[in-house]
Design goal:
alpha+beta; two-stranded antiparallel sheet; 14 helices; disordered N terminus
Amino acid sequence: MPHLAAVGPSDGLARAVEERLAGEEPARGAVRSERRKEILRQRREELGLSQEDLAARLRISVRAYGNWERGLVKEWTDRKLLALAEALEMSERQCFWLFRVMVDRDPPPTWRAAEENRLPEDPAQRDYLCDYAALMESVPYPSFLVDHRWDVALTNSAFDQLFRSVRPHPTALPDDNFLRFVLFHPDAAAVLEDHEPAWCVPLLAQFATALAEAPDDEGLRSIRQEVARDPFMEAAYRYGVPHWLSSHGTEAAELDGAVRTVRHPDPRWGLVRCRMVAENSRMLGEMGLTRITLILSTPTGAPRGPVRSGAGFTQQTGARLRAVPSPVE
């Protein structure tokens, strides 16, 4: 089932995560060892906070918080981690990964994130999004809603299926912020074929435009800071994007109509061409949201018109354009 990003992943996605984590114990331990040193600093810097600011929120000394951020803590108790999650304004999903990375367990069942920032206050808009979720779920292709920061507000099951093999990451999950996923997640290239030229550069070009239009937006500025910390992405942003735009034109950065390639974890799809379709309705526009759907082409040798059936995909004859005559049998 689809899920609102502010509420958390669907039960099916959560079960898939649990199964994947159970089978990756050695790798998970190595990742957790590195993430422990980074997750607090990264999130703090995303919020534009100093160590002094965060220590004040936690009501502890700056020295004590510095030890927390360096991982010099003998025991991470639920109380400490929940205090951190609250001080770092973490969503339910981010709190989940905080506990997974730090102590390899789920947050206590009493934890409830107070995040409402991606859900509109207007009850009519909330109802619209709930109905829109049903519409998106009826589509057999990966589909998601994003705002101008590429924060993901809604996904469907086909989207979750496409990215089911993606490993945990504190800030760059595909259903959390799609731009961060494309730029910074180590698994992005395994799903997004021709990762650098086909995905990173066009999205960096769009990001540059968004930042120029809203230079004071904290979400965009935090992404810019993260780009600056990555030498490869910084070079691409400063030099690669202008050269690419001069060669291909600004229209090449548009998502709507762009043709890309993805590697689907379902072997019945495999390496498959997709066309990106960006859509807006009046109400989505009022909420600052855009829907992006990845129209997957039928794999070579398979019948036309993919539709989803049950947990996987089956192939059936699909719709046709009325202006195009039916083939002669």
